[in-house]
Design brief:
Elements (H helix, E strand, L loop, with lengths): L4 H4 L4 E4 L2 E4 L12 H14 L1 H9 L3 H26 L4 H6 L1 H24 L2
Antiparallel strand pairs: 1-2
Length: 124
């Protein structure tokens, strides 16, 4: 019997009952922690960018890609919160003398920064 193209390329089959199934496996991938931003981007890819998700998954690059997105988002979050706080005059003195106002402004800044990150990095 002549070899199939799959066998010519080094592939093998396993017989189960009357059928032959190809021995396929995904490439090994490192286990980096993904984090909340990476998980959000993963859900977005699964729902709206199915082909990109499948390509990354089958090439064994999904976890590292999501870990990189998470790292970028985390760095962007801290940088933007600091910049926005400096621009709006949210200081340690405000925190000491008017803690409720400081909390209100910081919550507002963090919400704004989360929207920026979602728009520019996560849901793209």
């Amino acid at each position: 019997m002549e070899k199939t193209i799959f066998e010519q390329m080094g592939g093998t089959y396993t017989r189960q009952g009357d059928y032959y199934f190809p021995n396929l496996s995904l490439p090994a991938e490192g286990n980096k922690p993904i984090g909340i931003w990476g998980q959000r981007h993963k859900r977005y890819l699964q729902k709206y960018k199915r082909s990109t998700y499948t390509t990354l998954l089958t090439r064994g690059k999904l976890n590292s890609y999501l870990a990189d997105i998470n790292e970028q988002a985390q760095e962007m979050f801290f940088r933007l919160v600091k910049e926005y706080a400096d621009n709006q005059g949210v200081t340690e003195q405000l925190k000491a003398y008017k803690p409720l106002e400081w909390v209100q402004k910081m919550n507002n800044i963090q919400s704004t920064v989360k929207e920026v990150i979602n728009t520019e990095l996560i849901y793209v």
